[in-house]
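Tip: read the tokens left to right.
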């Protein structure tokens, strides 16, 4: 796959603005592991290879288990996620699929039992940011940063 354009050189001011929002999210106080799960799940839904690659690596580097990463696409049937993570993942899916879900009340009630109002706003901003990154990177076909390994012959 060939990139359609380079986001960082084509419009650095736009990317600087998105990075500013990302910096806020990174320091908002929500658990790093939870944010990585949210980023991975939204990226799975949106089919963003660049973001999937980046956030799976980040999650693993910060101690996330392979099993939890592998089961993320089936989180509702997997017993390895906490109630707080489940609420965040349900909120992530609902907001990422906004035109399909219209953010139902039961999903809102689930997430508000696990997050304070400030945390809920921060989580929603985090979901918005990863969806922005997904649209930028998938739309412009940013290739994942693949590790090159010598092929065994």
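Filled-in amino acids:
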């Amino acid at each position: 796959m060939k990139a359609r354009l380079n986001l960082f050189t084509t419009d650095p001011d736009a990317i600087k603005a998105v990075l500013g929002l990302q910096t806020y999210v990174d320091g908002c106080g929500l658990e790093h592991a939870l944010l990585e799960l949210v980023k991975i799940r939204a990226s799975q839904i949106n089919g963003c290879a660049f973001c999937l690659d980046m956030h799976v690596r980040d999650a693993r580097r910060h101690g996330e288990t392979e099993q939890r990463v592998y089961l993320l696409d089936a989180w509702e049937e997997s017993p390895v996620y906490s109630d707080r993570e489940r609420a965040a993942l349900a909120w992530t899916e609902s907001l990422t699929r906004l035109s399909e879900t219209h953010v139902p009340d039961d999903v809102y009630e689930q997430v508000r039992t696990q997050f304070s109002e400030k945390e809920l706003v921060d989580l929603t901003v985090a979901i918005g940011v990863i969806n922005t990154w997904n649209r930028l990177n998938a739309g412009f076909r940013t290739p994942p940063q693949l590790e090159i390994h010598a092929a065994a012959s």
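The mean pLDDT is 94. The chain is about 65% helix and 0% strand.
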